[in-house]
Inverse folding.
Protein backbone atom coordinates (compact mmCIF):
# COMPACT_ATOMS: atom_id res chain seq x y z
CA UNK A 1 0.00 0.00 0.00
CA UNK A 2 1.38 3.44 -0.94
CA UNK A 3 1.52 5.95 1.91
CA UNK A 4 -1.02 8.78 1.90
CA UNK A 5 0.04 12.22 3.08
CA UNK A 6 -1.52 13.32 5.36
CA UNK A 7 -2.32 9.81 6.58
CA UNK A 8 -5.84 8.50 6.88
CA UNK A 9 -6.48 7.61 10.52
CA UNK A 10 -9.30 5.31 11.59
CA UNK A 11 -10.47 5.03 15.20
CA UNK A 12 -12.40 1.83 15.82
CA UNK A 13 -13.55 -0.61 18.49
CA UNK A 14 -12.85 -4.33 18.19
CA UNK A 15 -16.11 -6.20 17.55
CA UNK A 16 -18.21 -3.11 16.92
CA UNK A 17 -20.01 -3.49 13.59
CA UNK A 18 -19.79 0.25 12.85
CA UNK A 19 -16.01 0.49 12.77
CA UNK A 20 -15.79 -2.93 11.15
CA UNK A 21 -17.64 -1.57 8.08
CA UNK A 22 -15.04 1.12 7.64
CA UNK A 23 -12.08 -1.22 8.17
CA UNK A 24 -13.55 -3.62 5.61
CA UNK A 25 -13.96 -0.78 3.12
CA UNK A 26 -10.34 0.24 3.68
CA UNK A 27 -9.08 -3.35 3.32
CA UNK A 28 -11.14 -4.16 0.22
CA UNK A 29 -9.89 -0.98 -1.45
CA UNK A 30 -6.30 -1.45 -0.21
CA UNK A 31 -6.41 1.95 1.49
CA UNK A 32 -3.33 2.67 3.62
CA UNK A 33 -4.40 3.88 7.07
CA UNK A 34 -3.21 4.39 10.60
CA UNK A 35 -5.22 2.26 12.94
CA UNK A 36 -6.31 3.50 16.39
CA UNK A 37 -8.08 0.80 18.35
CA UNK A 38 -10.23 2.27 21.13
CA UNK A 39 -11.37 0.37 24.19
CA UNK A 40 -14.78 1.85 25.00
CA UNK A 41 -14.68 0.22 28.46
CA UNK A 42 -11.89 2.68 29.30
CA UNK A 43 -14.22 5.57 28.42
CA UNK A 44 -11.64 7.02 26.04
CA UNK A 45 -14.38 7.87 23.55
CA UNK A 46 -15.67 10.45 26.07
CA UNK A 47 -12.26 12.09 26.61
CA UNK A 48 -11.83 15.70 25.53
CA UNK A 49 -9.30 14.64 22.90
CA UNK A 50 -11.71 12.16 21.32
CA UNK A 51 -14.77 14.42 21.63
CA UNK A 52 -12.86 16.92 19.51
CA UNK A 53 -12.97 14.30 16.76
CA UNK A 54 -16.49 13.07 17.35
CA UNK A 55 -18.57 15.28 19.67
CA UNK A 56 -21.12 12.47 20.07
CA UNK A 57 -18.46 10.36 21.75
CA UNK A 58 -19.10 7.53 19.29
CA UNK A 59 -16.63 5.31 17.51
CA UNK A 60 -15.61 5.04 14.64
CA UNK A 61 -14.04 8.30 13.56
CA UNK A 62 -11.91 9.02 10.52
CA UNK A 63 -9.32 11.77 10.39
CA UNK A 64 -7.52 12.84 7.22
CA UNK A 65 -5.63 16.08 7.72
CA UNK A 66 -8.31 18.70 8.43
CA UNK A 67 -11.11 16.35 7.48
CA UNK A 68 -12.86 14.71 10.45
CA UNK A 69 -15.75 12.33 9.89
CA UNK A 70 -17.93 10.77 12.58
CA UNK A 71 -20.43 8.39 10.92
CA UNK A 72 -19.50 5.03 9.44
CA UNK A 73 -21.47 5.44 6.19
CA UNK A 74 -19.97 8.89 5.65
CA UNK A 75 -16.49 7.40 6.14
CA UNK A 76 -17.24 4.72 3.56
CA UNK A 77 -18.45 7.38 1.12
CA UNK A 78 -15.29 9.42 1.69
CA UNK A 79 -13.04 6.43 1.06
CA UNK A 80 -15.00 5.65 -2.11
CA UNK A 81 -14.33 9.13 -3.50
CA UNK A 82 -10.63 9.01 -2.66
CA UNK A 83 -10.12 5.41 -3.74
CA UNK A 84 -12.69 4.69 -6.46
CA UNK A 85 -11.48 1.15 -7.21
CA UNK A 86 -13.11 -1.26 -6.82
CA UNK A 87 -16.37 0.75 -6.85
CA UNK A 88 -18.54 0.06 -3.81
CA UNK A 89 -21.28 2.62 -4.44
CA UNK A 90 -22.07 1.57 -8.02
CA UNK A 91 -21.16 2.97 -11.41
CA UNK A 92 -24.50 4.41 -12.53
CA UNK A 93 -27.19 6.60 -10.94
CA UNK A 94 -29.51 3.61 -10.67
CA UNK A 95 -26.87 1.42 -9.00
CA UNK A 96 -25.90 4.17 -6.54
CA UNK A 97 -29.55 4.71 -5.58
CA UNK A 98 -30.15 0.98 -5.16
CA UNK A 99 -27.08 0.57 -2.94
CA UNK A 100 -28.05 3.58 -0.82
CA UNK A 101 -31.58 2.24 -0.52
CA UNK A 102 -30.37 -1.07 0.92
CA UNK A 103 -27.95 0.74 3.26
CA UNK A 104 -30.64 3.18 4.42
CA UNK A 105 -33.26 0.49 4.92
CA UNK A 106 -30.81 -1.49 7.00
CA UNK A 107 -29.83 1.49 9.14
CA UNK A 108 -33.49 2.47 9.65
CA UNK A 109 -35.10 -0.91 10.31
CA UNK A 110 -32.81 -3.82 11.15
CA UNK A 111 -29.78 -2.11 12.67
CA UNK A 112 -31.67 -0.57 15.65
CA UNK A 113 -33.24 -3.94 16.44
CA UNK A 114 -29.89 -5.71 16.35
CA UNK A 115 -28.36 -2.97 18.49
CA UNK A 116 -31.12 -3.27 21.11
CA UNK A 117 -31.04 -7.06 21.23
CA UNK A 118 -27.26 -7.24 21.36
CA UNK A 119 -27.12 -4.71 24.19
CA UNK A 120 -29.65 -6.80 26.13
CA UNK A 121 -27.57 -9.96 25.59
CA UNK A 122 -24.20 -8.45 26.37
CA UNK A 123 -25.49 -6.74 29.52
CA UNK A 124 -27.59 -9.73 30.52
CA UNK A 125 -30.75 -7.59 30.62
CA UNK A 126 -34.28 -8.75 29.98
CA UNK A 127 -36.78 -7.04 27.66
CA UNK A 128 -40.53 -6.83 28.21
CA UNK A 129 -42.61 -9.39 26.31
CA UNK A 130 -44.10 -6.61 24.14
CA UNK A 131 -40.71 -5.13 23.27
CA UNK A 132 -39.38 -8.56 22.48
CA UNK A 133 -42.31 -9.51 20.25
CA UNK A 134 -41.99 -6.30 18.22
CA UNK A 135 -38.26 -6.76 17.74
CA UNK A 136 -38.57 -10.45 17.00
CA UNK A 137 -41.05 -9.62 14.21
CA UNK A 138 -38.82 -6.98 12.61
CA UNK A 139 -35.73 -9.16 12.95
CA UNK A 140 -37.23 -12.05 11.03
CA UNK A 141 -39.09 -9.91 8.47
CA UNK A 142 -35.88 -8.07 7.61
CA UNK A 143 -33.74 -11.24 7.53
CA UNK A 144 -36.34 -12.73 5.19
CA UNK A 145 -36.10 -9.68 2.89
CA UNK A 146 -32.31 -9.95 2.79
CA UNK A 147 -32.55 -13.67 2.09
CA UNK A 148 -34.93 -12.96 -0.81
CA UNK A 149 -32.50 -10.44 -2.30
CA UNK A 150 -29.76 -13.05 -2.14
CA UNK A 151 -31.88 -15.59 -4.03
CA UNK A 152 -31.56 -13.26 -7.03
CA UNK A 153 -27.87 -12.36 -6.91
CA UNK A 154 -24.58 -13.20 -5.21
CA UNK A 155 -24.39 -9.88 -3.36
CA UNK A 156 -27.14 -7.74 -1.89
CA UNK A 157 -27.32 -5.30 -4.78
CA UNK A 158 -26.26 -7.47 -7.71
CA UNK A 159 -23.34 -9.54 -8.82
CA UNK A 160 -20.65 -7.19 -7.45
CA UNK A 161 -19.79 -6.61 -3.83
CA UNK A 162 -21.03 -3.18 -2.74
CA UNK A 163 -21.25 -0.86 0.25
CA UNK A 164 -24.60 -2.52 1.02
CA UNK A 165 -22.85 -5.81 1.81
CA UNK A 166 -20.26 -4.01 3.94
CA UNK A 167 -23.01 -2.17 5.82
CA UNK A 168 -25.14 -5.22 6.57
CA UNK A 169 -22.65 -8.06 7.14
CA UNK A 170 -20.94 -6.89 10.38
CA UNK A 171 -24.22 -6.52 12.30
CA UNK A 172 -25.39 -9.96 11.14
CA UNK A 173 -22.17 -11.59 12.31
CA UNK A 174 -22.22 -9.59 15.55
CA UNK A 175 -25.76 -10.66 16.43
CA UNK A 176 -25.27 -14.32 15.52
CA UNK A 177 -22.18 -14.46 17.70
CA UNK A 178 -24.05 -12.97 20.67
CA UNK A 179 -27.13 -15.10 20.02
CA UNK A 180 -25.06 -18.21 20.80
CA UNK A 181 -24.46 -17.00 24.37
CA UNK A 182 -26.49 -18.41 27.30
CA UNK A 183 -27.70 -14.85 28.04
CA UNK A 184 -29.56 -14.89 24.70
CA UNK A 185 -31.71 -17.91 25.62
CA UNK A 186 -34.44 -15.95 27.49
CA UNK A 187 -34.82 -13.64 24.49
CA UNK A 188 -35.93 -16.61 22.40
CA UNK A 189 -34.65 -15.02 19.19
CA UNK A 190 -35.29 -18.04 17.00
CA UNK A 191 -31.83 -17.84 15.49
CA UNK A 192 -30.45 -21.25 16.45
CA UNK A 193 -31.61 -22.60 13.09
CA UNK A 194 -30.53 -19.49 11.19
CA UNK A 195 -28.86 -21.49 8.37
CA UNK A 196 -32.08 -23.46 7.73
CA UNK A 197 -34.30 -20.39 7.92
CA UNK A 198 -32.05 -18.19 5.79
CA UNK A 199 -29.88 -20.42 3.58
CA UNK A 200 -29.07 -17.71 1.02
CA UNK A 201 -28.11 -15.24 3.71
CA UNK A 202 -25.91 -17.91 5.27
CA UNK A 203 -24.16 -18.64 1.96
CA UNK A 204 -23.67 -14.91 1.43
CA UNK A 205 -22.01 -14.62 4.84
CA UNK A 206 -19.66 -17.47 3.94
CA UNK A 207 -18.90 -15.82 0.59
CA UNK A 208 -18.16 -12.56 2.39
CA UNK A 209 -15.83 -14.31 4.84
CA UNK A 210 -13.78 -15.72 1.95
CA UNK A 211 -12.99 -12.26 0.52
CA UNK A 212 -9.33 -11.16 0.52
CA UNK A 213 -8.94 -8.55 3.25
CA UNK A 214 -11.66 -10.04 5.46
CA UNK A 215 -9.17 -11.59 7.87
CA UNK A 216 -7.22 -8.36 8.30
CA UNK A 217 -10.33 -6.48 9.43
CA UNK A 218 -11.64 -9.31 11.64
CA UNK A 219 -12.19 -8.14 15.25
CA UNK A 220 -8.92 -9.09 16.99
CA UNK A 221 -10.43 -9.78 20.40
CA UNK A 222 -12.80 -12.33 18.85
CA UNK A 223 -9.74 -14.34 17.85
CA UNK A 224 -8.53 -14.17 21.45
CA UNK A 225 -11.88 -15.02 23.08
CA UNK A 226 -13.24 -17.34 20.37
N1 LIG B 1 -24.24 5.78 13.72
C1 LIG B 1 -22.89 5.62 14.21
C2 LIG B 1 -22.95 4.65 15.40
C3 LIG B 1 -21.64 4.58 16.17
C4 LIG B 1 -21.80 3.84 17.49
O1 LIG B 1 -22.91 3.68 18.01
N2 LIG B 1 -20.68 3.40 18.05
C5 LIG B 1 -20.68 2.67 19.29
C6 LIG B 1 -19.86 1.44 19.03
S1 LIG B 1 -18.99 0.70 20.25
C7 LIG B 1 -20.05 3.52 20.39
O2 LIG B 1 -19.26 4.38 20.11
N3 LIG B 1 -20.40 3.24 21.66
C8 LIG B 1 -19.74 3.83 22.77
C9 LIG B 1 -20.53 4.87 23.50
O3 LIG B 1 -21.66 5.20 23.07
O4 LIG B 1 -20.01 5.36 24.50
C10 LIG B 1 -22.00 5.11 13.07
O5 LIG B 1 -22.53 4.47 12.14
O6 LIG B 1 -20.79 5.39 13.06
Amino acid sequence: MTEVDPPIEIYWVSGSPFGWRVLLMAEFKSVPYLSHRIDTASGKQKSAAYLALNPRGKVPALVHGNVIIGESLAMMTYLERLFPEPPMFGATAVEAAHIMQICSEFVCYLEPVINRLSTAISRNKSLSAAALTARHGTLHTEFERLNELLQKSQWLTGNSLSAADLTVYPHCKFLLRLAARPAAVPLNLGLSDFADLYPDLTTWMQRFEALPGYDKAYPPHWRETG
Summary: Residues 93-122 form the longest helix (30 residues).
